[in-house]
């Protein structure tokens, strides 16, 4: 399994002419996974050797603007580059509780209709991830009767035994999120490659000495 990382933005707080806000892309098996999506991410993608259309998963560490304000615009750009009659695979978006509401409202208010499906999988934080006065419970948002249905997705709770959140698992790797302490609930992401058994015939080696 080959992995390639491209840094699209490493600046904090706001983008500058020479440095984009937080965003990086992990490329594996022909797919691109985007980690954070600060303002200007889609412009940085255009300047890179990467193809935005290959983005299949997006991971947002926390809900500070310099880490996710570029997301609605990027999704709209991906939609404009999509074939209206095509069958593009859904884009899976992982991030803290509240991200689904932000995306849904941003796209609804701007009358943006995406030509591909997407799902938002929200991580439920614990109160000890940030100062007590900064913690906000977004679990009740957009649950009132009469509100339109937002995008699909899972609500992920902390696994107390693993002290992490299981996000993705396939034949090659496992992706988990773990809690970080910040001014707002924040998460780090770990990609762990699964063991690959060797092809040596151990018994034959022993027989041959």
TrEMBL record:
<dbReference type="GO" id="GO:0046872">
    <property type="term" value="F:metal ion binding"/>
</dbReference>
<dbReference type="Pfam" id="PF23023">
    <property type="entry name" value="Anti-Pycsar_Apyc1"/>
</dbReference>
<dbReference type="InterPro" id="IPR013471">
    <property type="entry name" value="RNase_Z/BN"/>
</dbReference>
<keyword id="KW-0540">Nuclease</keyword>
<keyword id="KW-0378">Hydrolase</keyword>
<keyword id="KW-0479">Metal-binding</keyword>
<dbReference type="GO" id="GO:0042781">
    <property type="term" value="F:3'-tRNA processing endoribonuclease activity"/>
</dbReference>
<protein>
    <submittedName>
        <fullName>RNZ1 protein</fullName>
    </submittedName>
</protein>
<dbReference type="InterPro" id="IPR036866">
    <property type="entry name" value="RibonucZ/Hydroxyglut_hydro"/>
</dbReference>
<keyword id="KW-0862">Zinc</keyword>
<keyword id="KW-0819">tRNA processing</keyword>
<keyword id="KW-0255">Endonuclease</keyword>
<comment type="subunit">
    <text>Homodimer.</text>
</comment>
<dbReference type="GO" id="GO:0005634">
    <property type="term" value="C:nucleus"/>
</dbReference>
